[in-house]
Amino acid sequence: MALSRVPGDDELYVGGIFTLRRKSALSDAGITHIVSVLKYDFKDFEDWEKYEHLNIDVDDVADEDLLGEFENTGSWIEKALKEGKEDKKGKVLVHCAMGKSRSVTITIAYLLRQYPEHTVESALSLIRETRPIAEPNEGFMEQLQLYKEMGCPRDIAAQPRYQRWLYQREVEMALAAGMAPDRVRFEDEETQEGGNRTGQEVELRCKRCRRTLATTPYLVTHLPTAPKPVSSSAMGPISSLPPTPNHSACQHHFLHPLSWMRPELEQGLLSGRLECPNPKCLAQIGRYAWQGLRCSCGVWVCPAISLQKGRVDEITKRGENGPGQAAEDGFRVSSVGTGAKDEAGSTGIRLPPGMRGKGNL
């Protein structure tokens, strides 16, 4: 198949690079604009000046940042389809090497941007009606899902979840080289995604001095795995409890990096211990491991910044801003939440009554 028209009202086509050499196919389709999603030198193609051209220089690898290009390509395609040339509506070809992954990803992103009723899966299914080989790689599918969850924003770079995703990529690159990341993103110093939430909020305090260490927006949730049944000669198999986020098998609270951890996390070490930030306490309360660690419940978390449950008290309280979970894009855990901020819009840790304004973190 040279090029495939995406079903719908838009004159939008998907193809591979060999489509560019089939001048008759391009002419028959009336192509006016071309989006190339690959690294290539196009100077050898004849009549190239006939087309408006946008080139996105990326490889077809899962960790390639294609998400950051979605608004650029989406707005360009939208304008091309509306304006075209000589007062005629445009017809756009989006291509990569095979017309399978990169070009399909950009086309899905356009559909999500223009038609909010679409999901990632429904947009992909639509394209597959005429191009069955359409199959973005796993990393691109995750980026599309994140794009949809963010609401297909016009300013992607300003989105906290995108910034957090970029930072996770930095961490992974550093770990691949056997090093700690060059910089640490402290979540309580960053803009958090807000929302009206109701329900309970968890507050973690040092068991020794009662210093507040973290609250719900900065917790990394994970779903413990139920242990396998244990055989007993007297009683037979013993069934384990179903997995829940608060299963007793977990001995750790996992957190996003917070500013009170700066003295430890900025040492450039791959792992180490965490002390209570209260200078009169300095109790050993947890540990960090950029390369990740496995919780006692069996879930692997990376990077892992944890407080030991036996060293902290977990206080549950009900407030106007309830169980909002910090966004966990990039943290390799079993569940994903969304960021939150307090009623006043602050991104700092909430303090218990009587401790506000005392520089708790």
Give structural notes.
- The protein has seven helices and 15 strands.
- The chain is an alpha+beta fold and 361 residues long.
- The chain has two domains: 3-158, Protein-Tyrosine Phosphatase, Chain A (Alpha-Beta Complex); 187-319, Metal Binding Protein, Guanine Nucleotide Exchange Factor, Chain A, CATH 2.170.150.
- Helix 3 packs parallel to helix 5.
- The radius of gyration is 25 Å and the shape is elongated.
- The termini are far apart.
- Belongs to the protein-tyrosine phosphatase family. Non-receptor class dual specificity subfamily.
- Residues 4-153 form the Tyrosine-protein phosphatase domain.
- One of its GO terms (molecular function) is protein tyrosine phosphatase activity.
- Residues 336-361 are annotated as: Disordered.
